[in-house]
Design a protein that fits this description.
Layout lengths: L1 E11 L6 E14 L1 H19 L9 E4 L5 E4 L2 H7 L5 H16 L4 H20 L4 H23 L1 E2 H4 L2 H11 L8 H15 L1 E2 L5 E2 L5 E7 L7 E4 L1 E3 L11 E3 L2 E5 L19 H24 L4 E4 L5 H10 L2 E3 L4 H11 L3 E2 L17 E2 L2 E7 L2 E7 L7 E7 L2 H24 L1 E4 L3 H15 L5 H12 L1 H9 L4 H17 L9 E4 L4 E4 H4 L2 E3 H19 L3 E5 L9
Parallel strand pairs: 8-19, 12-13, 12-15, 13-14
Antiparallel strand pairs: 1-2, 2-24, 3-4, 5-20, 6-7, 9-19, 10-18, 11-17, 12-16, 17-18, 20-23, 21-22
Helix pairs in contact: 1-3, 1-4, 2-3, 3-4, 3-18, 4-14, 4-18, 5-13, 5-14, 5-18, 7-8, 7-12, 8-12, 9-10, 13-14, 13-16, 15-16
Length: about 550
């Protein structure tokens, strides 16, 4: 690292022909060239090594403790990297990469980071052999493009071909590496039923599966197998008063975002009265303002009122008299989802465009039934048969909060994988099958090129093997032997016509051998593989482009200048 005190700026003046040199003082460190690239590669590999051991069905968990002492036990790549406090700029790119994969696909967050780090390590080796970064970048882009094309043409399987069990197998594969892997048959059924319950066909004829409409509630206690699926939206609240009805058929639901409490004057307002009787009238008017609001809502036909705010005892009396169900202190996020599912409007204020207060019946949503039920140890409000969009809820049980939180993450990843298959209708075999096939294909493709990119594509092909190799190492098996066998199968499938069916061969990590993963039901969404390849390549290219790093010193408190 070369420390510098300024950048020389040359300013020429034509009138006198003189040239003056001025120094702009910038206090910081400047690193450039090979040292920056090596440093970035080292940071990226360090991040990948953290999550490497958590990949695969026999991957291990990480325990993360924050400054407050809160403990998180997880093997979800995105969660691990989110909780790490990373300072190095290149390492931050990989953490953001995992978040991007989590948002776009929902699964495959660990593998995307491992591939990106391996691509950077391979690129660093090529740069040391005096190959220009631009050549490597072009080679990587070409290899990524060819990989995506190869997956779509040769390895993708239509979900319709595999029948009903396709979604179950995708859910099981996603869960196999998680904490609920031992109960994956039980949870896969719940996840698929949930996804089937909320899927719908839009106006263009495409199937959509909005998993955000699935509410996942967590309650610690009992065993994991006592988790259950609820048809309808489950709300972790109870009715405001025990005198209210616990079940209403064909309800009209109002979702409001303000409190229904006795109206109080704002701070700083003074009321000067001459007559003490007028003081009572002021108090009466304060109570009547809220009463009028409630009457307005009830007159519109509402008999189930859900609010994010509070409802005081005086106001609860009006709802009890009207035979309506009022639920207070609902989460805003839950209320927005219920509004979407029932077709209600999320009302933040009763004011209309004329400056008056009104509540119309068009603001109300509808469902088949709203009922308060005891599920496990808690009372829950269930909104069944929502009219605008279907909805479902999962109630998770577990030994403690740490365990239940990890179950929640596992079920969410599995739901995301099932959603992608329902929407794209395409899967690929898992267990290192895709990566091994790509490695053989890209090696052969590289030898067909007569340009400089050949070396970069060959390194890209080699980097693909990091996934099957890591899977085998985590399973405590011989990685050299198993990966060699896997490559031999895929080489035969791509060169010998009679052995074409070997392209489905992947790893069986429980028994330490190769098997047909299509038959075994180890399946992943095609979109997950394609996106992870694209994101990993883009992240590696982003970091490869960097050849100069200027770090400005933080100003000291004593001398701000």
């Amino acid at each position: 690292a070369s420390s510098f005190n300024g950048i020389k700026a040359v300013v020429s003046t034509q009138s006198t022909g003189m040239t003056t040199t001025q120094s702009i003082s910038l206090f910081g460190d400047r690193e450039k060239g090979e040292s920056v690239r090596t440093q970035n590669m080292t940071a990226a590999v360090a991040i990948a090594n953290i999550v490497k051991s958590s990949l695969g069905p026999v991957g291990l968990d990480k325990m993360l403790v924050d400054e407050v002492g809160d403990v998180t036990v997880t093997n979800d790549g995105a969660t691990i990297l989110k909780l790490l406090e990373v300072e190095h700029p290149a390492a931050k790119v990989l953490c953001e990469l995992a978040q991007l994969q989590d948002e776009e696909v929902g699964d495959g967050t660990t593998s995307v980071v491992i591939i990106a780090a391996e691509l950077l390590r391979a690129a660093d080796e090529l740069i040391k052999q005096k190959i220009h970064p631009t050549t490597i970048i072009n080679g990587y882009k070409l290899a990524c493009k060819e990989s995506v094309k190869f997956i779509q043409e040769n390895l993708a399987i239509g979900s319709a071909e595999l029948g009903k069990n396709c979604l179950l197998n995708v859910a099981k594969t996603s869960m196999s590496s998680k904490i609920i892997g031992s109960d994956r048959d039980f949870f896969a059924n719940i996840v698929v039923q949930c996804a089937e319950a909320v899927k719908f066909t839009n106006t263009k004829g495409d199937q959509k599966c909005p998993i955000k409409t699935i509410n996942i509630l967590k309650a610690h206690g009992k065993s994991t197998r006592e988790s259950n699926l609820v048809k309808g939206y489950a709300l972790n609240c109870t009715v405001g008063s025990q005198l209210m009805p616990k079940c209403i058929k064909n309800p009209k639901i109002a979702c409001i975002d303000f409190s229904l409490q006795k109206s109080k004057m704002k701070m700083g307002i003074q009321v000067v009265v001459d007559d003490p009787e007028k003081l009572e009238a002021v108090r009466q008017r304060e109570a009547d303002i809220t009463k009028e609001k409630i009457e307005m809502i009830l007159n519109a036909g509402a008999n189930v009122i859900l609010t994010t705010g509070g409802i005081d005892d005086m106001c609860l009396k009006y709802f009890v008299d009207a035979g309506a169900m009022a639920v207070r202190r609902c989460k805003k996020e839950d209320l927005k989802r219920i509004a979407r599912a029932t077709g209600a409007a999320f009302v933040a204020s009763l004011s209309n465009l004329e400056g008056e207060e009104s509540f119309e019946s068009a603001f109300l949503g509808s469902a088949e039934e709203v009922v308060q039920e005891r599920i496990c140890d808690d009372e829950l409000i269930l909104i069944k048969g929502t009219k605008a969009k279907p909805s479902a809820s999962i109630i998770l049980r577990g030994a403690n909060d740490i365990y239940v939180d990890e179950m929640d993450r596992s079920v969410h990843d599995s739901l995301c994988a099932v959603k992608r298959v329902i929407e794209s209708k395409s899967v690929v075999p898992g267990g290192g099958c895709v990566e091994a096939a790509l490695s053989i294909y890209l090696e052969n493709f590289a030898t067909s090129l007569g340009s400089r990119e050949q070396l970069a594509i060959a390194e890209f092909a080699q980097a693909m093997l990091v996934i099957p190799r890591t899977l085998v190492v985590n399973a405590a098996k011989d990685s050299t032997e198993l990966v060699a066998k896997l490559r031999a199968f895929h080489n035969a499938s791509q060169t010998i016509e009679a052995k074409r069916q070997f392209k489905w061969i992947g790893l069986d990590l429980e028994n330490g051998k190769c098997r047909d993963n299509r038959e075994a039901g180890v399946l992943e969404p095609e979109m997950s593989k394609i996106k992870s390849l694209k994101f990993a390549t883009e992240a590696a290219i982003t970091i490869l482009r960097i050849d100069d790093m200027i770090k400005i010193y933080q100003p000291s408190k004593e001398d701000p200048n």
